[in-house]
Amino acid sequence: MTLGEKIRHLIKTSRFRNISAFHRELVNVFEDNAVNRRTLSQIINGHAIARERTLNQIAIILGMKTSELRKGTNAQILEPAETLGAFTYNELAVMQALQNHLPFMPCRLTLKKGGRTSEEQDRPESKESVKWCAIISGRVNLYIDGTVGREKKTFRKGDSFSFDARQRHYFENASPATTRLYIIHAPAHNSDFFITQPPLPFRPDSAGDNQNHPGAQAPAQ
After folding, report:
1. C-alpha to C-alpha distance for 218 and 221, rounded to whole angstroms
2. Residues 93, 179: Cα–Cα separation, whole Å
3. Best exposed site among 30, 33, 62, 70 by fewest CB in 10 Å?
């Protein structure tokens, strides 16, 4: 089986059903960085060889690793040595790394309507771990465990904030449309050591949209 044949089969048997719907989802998640429709068709029809970054995008939307996508095919990939990481929490939440080989890890988090990440935290024994976030579009709730219990902070387009990533936390889309935010995690090496955990129920008695807490900071003015 060729790589294009496998991609075509996976798309047809997925919730997208056809290439046009699948490409719309690529654009929705990766925006201007998404592979264009013509190139996608050429790859599927065997008229072009996929770059690693393109294959990575396709795999993310299909909910699998690039190695799983290539498995059982005669895939040839351009630029195989350099890849950018990505993590799919679920079909409504995708984290995409934007640059490698930096002392920090810049990422873009896309949360569709109703989307939320898994609960996670950097290892408590880490000396330092900070996440700085900037909202590109929409509105996001940050749930974080502080000294007084679980707290909630709501941020909107144009807001920026930071918090100690060693505190257990997760993000949730708080708008009726797709929310996107840039996240810079420092230092970069800590990004490899995140602990994902089962979600805990939000405790409203310890939260408030306008509360300050030790982790999250107020939006930049």
Report:
1. 9
2. 10
3. 33
Phi, psi values for residue 195, rounded to 5°: -105, 115
Of residues 123 and 154, the one with the higher pLDDT is: 154
Question: 68 φ, ψ to 5°?
Answer: -70, -35
Least reliable range by pLDDT among 66-70, 134-138, 165-169, 201-205: 201-205
CA atoms within 13 A on the CB side of 136: 13
Q: Please state, in angstroms and rounded to a whole number, the distance separating the CA atoms of residues 163 and 179.
A: 19
Q: What are phi and psi of 52, to 5 degrees?
A: -60, -40
Contact of 2 with 73, CB cutoff 8 Å: yes
Q: Is the pTM of this model over 0.85?
A: no
